[in-house]
Specification:
Elements: H1 19-25, H2 37-47, H3 52-77
Helix pairs in contact: 2-3
């Protein structure tokens, strides 16, 4: 799977950073992994991703966000929140 980057004309509207643009500017690393195709297809549908790479990237972003959210709740309120792996 190859990822091609196009540099579009940067109008005033393009200056506004959007989450998708933020993800596309991150450094990309090629990884070879074995995944269940049915799970990957389901994730693409659920997340509304156009590509498998986008689905995986979005899912990883969601895991990272959840961790930040849990840490924030713990710090702000001292409320115990179940975390992954515990």
């Amino acid at each position: 799977m190859y990822i091609h980057y196009l540099i579009p004309y940067r109008s005033e509207e393009a200056q506004i950073k959007k989450p998708q643009q933020e993800r596309s500017r991150r450094r990309r690393a090629r990884k070879n992994v074995r995944l269940d195709q049915r799970s990957l297809d389901a994730a693409r549908r659920i997340l509304g991703a156009k590509t498998e790479t986008e689905a995986i990237s979005t899912a990883l972003d969601m895991v990272i966000f959840r961790k930040e959210l849990v840490d924030g709740v713990r710090a702000m309120y001292g409320i115990p929140v179940a975390d992954f792996g515990r």
